[in-house]
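tool=predict chain=A
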Amino acid sequence: MVQPDEEEEEEDYMSMVFVDTPANPQHETSLQRAARKRREGEARSRIKSKAEREAEAEAAREAALSTALPSSNKGFKMMAKFGFKQGDSLGKSEDARKEPVQVNIKEDRGGIGLESEKKRKFKETMAQAAKEAKRIKATEGDYREERKQEAKNKKDERDLDNAQRIAERLAEQEFEEKNPGQTYQVPLKDINVLWRGRTQRRLEKEQDRQKQRELHNTLSSRLSTSANDEEQDDDSKIALGRDLAPFYTSLEDDDLEVGSDLMIFEALPAADRLQKVTIFLREKYHYCFWCGHRYTDITMDGCPGVTEEEHD
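tool=predict ok
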């Protein structure tokens, strides 16, 4: 009978040691060998790309430049005879170059001076581009300024027409207050030059409309009686009131005269004409065009100023 102290101690599984499986099998099977040779053949037969070849050449060049000559090198032995030691500089000067000259690989087929010529042309192109950009910027600034001025001129023309309309209306009211029961009728040459041009343009439009109406009425009346007119002589037409008078005779001799003072005033810029009309409204009728209000006296208490900017 085996004693308890003589019983074999059971092996603890926590203390078991596992042997790593070898990375490469000791014995290669035929299938493994065939697969390995196929991979090696494919690797040898694969044509490397240009980028891969350049990368390998660059790596080999850097490795060669960064590796010092070994003492067994024939060139190193020749320099050692002249006192050269590893890490020293060549020549008598201690400040001489210790590292080899860096190699700059020229990959294109251009001449040696082509790079400097390209740089010069590039600088010229950049300078020309900067000059052109500056010119375009100046042109754009001028264009924006012109558009801004055009918009201001159009606004001044609109304001001028409104100011002239107000001045004309106030003048009519003043005439009716001084002449009760009478219609405001003033010859064109006697109208204030500040709004005479506006009145003249309105009268010209009225004349054009009147001529069109008379022409239409005359043609209508003649077409309606054309059949009977062909059978009548001139005496009969005169007796019936259908003489040979020309069209729209009522206004053909009524020419609108343009005074020299109006021509001088119309030649001024719109802003200057507007200023003259607004000042006239203030002095004559105590009316501020920018406020849109007629004050009781010349002091015009409450009005910010004379110009539009003062009313902003």
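The two ends are 124 Å apart (CA to CA). The CA atoms of residues 165 and 195 lie 8 Å apart.
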